[in-house]
Automatic annotation (TrEMBL):
It comes from Leptonychotes weddellii. The gene is MAN1A2. Keywords: Disulfide bond, Glycosidase, Hydrolase, Membrane, Transmembrane, Transmembrane helix. PANTHER family: MANNOSYL-OLIGOSACCHARIDE 1,2-ALPHA-MANNOSIDASE IB, MANNOSYL-OLIGOSACCHARIDE ALPHA-1,2-MANNOSIDASE-RELATED. This is alpha-1,2-Mannosidase. It comes from the Eukaryota. Residues 145-175 are annotated as: Disordered.
Amino acid sequence: MTTPALLPLSGRRIPPLNLGPPSFPHHRATLRLSEKFILLLILSAFITLCFGAFFFLPDSSKHKRFDLGLEDVLIPHVDASKGAKNPGVFLIHGPDEHRHREEEERLRNKIRADHEKALEEAKEKLKKSREEIRAEIQTEKNKVVQEMKTKEKKPLPPVPIPNLIGINGGDPEDNDIRKKREKIKEMMKHAWDNYRIYGWGHNELRPIARKGHSTNIFGSSQMGATIVDALDTLYIMGLHDEFRDGQKWIEDTLDFSVNSEVSVFEVNIRFIGGLLAAYYLSGEEIFKIKAVQLAEKLLPAFNTPTGIPWAMVNLKSGVGRNWGWASAGSSILAEFGTLHMEFVHLSYLTGDPVYYKKVMHIRKLLQKMDRPNGLYPNYLNPRTGRWGQSDLQKKLAPVATGLSMPGLGIGKIAEELRQELQVLQVWPPARPPRLKLISLPFIFRYLYLLFSSDDLLPLDHWVFNTEAHPLPVLHLANTTLSGNPAVR
C-alpha cells in the first residue's frame, strides 16, 4: 500500500466556511461534569442566603412597637399604675408629652399667623403705588443711616488740648487798617451768604450760573467742601452765626460712606485740616469725630508695596489708584509729602499711633532714597519705590538753590519764564466761571490776618497747613503718642 505524498501546507485545500446557523455536535447535548458542579454551587449559595436571612428578621415585639407609630417609638409607654392615682390605668403619653404637643401646636399656630400676616402685608404693598413704595424704602434707608450716625457719634477718649493762645482778638490800633480789616470781613460774609443761597451743600459755587458745582478731586458727591474749608475763617472773623450753620450741616449731613473717588491730598488738607482747625478753635467734639472718620477712610490708600499712598481712593471700597498723567501712574511728591502735620495731630487726639506711623514711614523712606543732583524728583512709583521723570528737576539740577529768584535767574529757564509771562500779558481777562474753594478760606483768611495785630494766631504757637488751616504747635514737652499726652 502506497502512502500518499505529503504536500506542503500551503497547497492543501481548506474546506469552505459555513456561514449558516451553527451546528453543534451530538456530544454537546448534555452538560459537562464541571458545568454541573458550578450550577450546584450557585444553587447551594442561594439556599444558604435565604435560610440565613430568616435569622436576621426583627423580633415580633419590636415589630409591634413600630406598629404603634413613630411617636410611641420615640416616647415610651408610661405605666400609670406605678405611683398613679388610678392604678391599673395605662397611659400612652404622660403629662410631659401633652405639654410638648401643646407647644408644637402653639408653634404651628404662630407660624401660620406670621405667614398670613406676611401675605396680608404683601397684598397691601401691591395695592400701593410705586411712589408710596419708594417713599417707604427711603424711610427705612433713612432710619438705618440715622442708626449708623448714632453709632459713629460715640465720643473719642478725652485728650487735653494744648495751651491755645491768640484765638480771638487781633484788633489793629490804626483806624485805617481796622477799616480794611472790616471790609475783608464784609467780603467774606457776602461770599458766604451767596453760597448759602445758591450752592449750599455743594463743593463749590458757580456765581454766574448761580448753582452748585463739584470737581473731580471730590468725586460726584456733595460733600460740602466749601463749608468745611471755611469754618475756621468764620470763627476767626467772629461770624459765629454762620459758623453754627456750617456746624449743623456737618453734624446732620456730612457723610463719608459714599461711593466716591477723592484725592487723598485735597481731602487731607481741606477736610481733615479744616475739621481739626475748627475743633481746636471751638472745642466742639463733632469736628474731631468727623476728622477721625474721614482719616479712617483714607488709610486704605497707604496699602501699597512701599507704603507710599495712592493719589486717589474710593471712600466706600478703599480701592486706590494714581493719575495716569503722573509719570505713568506714579504718586506725586508734593501730595504725599504734605500729609505729616494732619496725621500727627490725629494720633495726638486719638491716642492711635497708626496715623503717625504712616507719615513717619514716608519720611524715613525719602531720607534713604537717592536725590539726583541734590533734588528730589516730582514722582515716585508706589509699587517699585523708584523715582519717575521730572522735567523741572532736570532744568534746575545745575542750580541747587531751589525755586528762589536767584536760581530762576540763571540759565535757560529764566528765558522760558519770560516768554510765558509775555503770553500771559496778551490773554484777555475773563470772569471766573465758579467760586473756587481757595477764595473763601485761603485768600480771605490770609488777608484778614494780614490786617490784624500779631496777637491773633501768633506764629510761635500756631502753624498753617498747606490750605492755611491753623493748627497748634505740638511741643514734645506736652505731646506723646500713647494716648496720654502730658498737659503743659
